[in-house]
Amino acid sequence: AAGVIQSPRHLIKEKRETATLKCYPIPRHDTVYWYQQGPGQDPQFLISFYEKMQSDKGSIPDRFSAQQFSDYHSELNMSSLELGDSALYFCASSLLGGNEQFFGPGTRLTVL
Amino acid sequence: ILNVEQSPQSLHVQEGDSTNFTCSFPSSNFYALHWYRWETAKSPEALFVMTLNGDEKKKGRISATLNTKEGYSYLYIKGSQPEDSATYLCAFMTYNQGGKLIFGQGTELSVKP
């Protein structure tokens, strides 16, 4: 069965650079969630989208933006990267109203 | 601030041992409680989604219970095997939070042959 795909799996950037993370949900899933897990921390909710519209927003810095496209894939854009942005970024997808969220393997971002 | 607490943080058991861990969550505005199994470099795998007080769910040697009134869930593994070694995450969902999950810090299980 198709799973959630995230790319790239690993990314190394310098401070003040930009990064774009991509998430491809399970086919027919209309809702995408982004989570950030810093070293030794719980995964924290960043933002979610349903049918290309932002549906909820968590503790996402203003330097980050995200969108969901017509094919339901989503991109998380991160600018002016800081050392503290180094984390594992998970994407999950679901059907609206469905309880279950299916996670991708994550993108590990390292900011040097 | 909604807090989800898991205990213990880590657990080392021998093959064949049975084990259990706890997830504590706020009892108000409860909608669902999720359990995930996460191996390093892989996607977190959904184990259970529990919604009803008193729910008990089972998948093979793994089972879970839910008490929404007192705000806790237990995950049990019977006869642990080395392949059960992983981090077990619980996550809480409320009615008015748009489906986002609030995670605990996980319990890291290591099963020695």
Task: Report a brief summary of the structure.
The complex is a heterodimer of chains A (112) and B (113). Chain A is mostly beta strands.
Describe it:
- The complex is a heterodimer of chains A (112) and B (113).
- With 112 residues, chain A is mainly β.
- Chain A has no helices and eleven strands.
- Helix content of chain A is 0%, strand content 51%.
- Chain A starts with a strand and ends with a strand.
- By secondary structure, chain B is mainly β.
- Chain B is 0% helix and 55% strand.
- Chain B has strands at 5-7, 10-14, 19-24, 30-38, 45-50, 56-59, 62-67, 72-77, 86-94, 102-103, 107-112.
- In chain B, a hairpin with a 2-residue loop joins strand 6 and strand 7.
- Chain B starts with a strand and ends with a strand.
- In chain B, 35% of the residues are buried.
- Classes of the chains: A mainly beta (112), B mainly beta (113).
- The interface between A and B is medium-sized, with 26 and 24 residues.
Largest sheet, strands/sense/barrel of chain B: 6 strands, mixed
Biggest sheet layout of chain A: 7 strands, mixed
* Overall average pLDDT of chain A: 94
The separation of the N and C termini of chain A measures 37 Å
Low-confidence stretches of chain B: none
Instruction: Measure the end-to-end span of chain B.
Output: 41 Å
List strands and helices in order, with pairings.
The complex is a heterodimer of chains A (112) and B (113).
Chain A: E1 5-7, E2 10-13, E3 19-24, E4 31-37, E5 44-50, E6 53-57, E7 64-68, E8 74-78, E9 87-94, E10 102-103, E11 107-111
Parallel strand pairs in A: 2-11
Antiparallel strand pairs in A: 1-3, 3-8, 4-5, 4-9, 5-6, 7-8, 9-10, 9-11
Chain B: E1 5-7, E2 10-14, E3 19-24, E4 30-38, E5 45-50, E6 56-59, E7 62-67, E8 72-77, E9 86-94, E10 102-103, E11 107-112
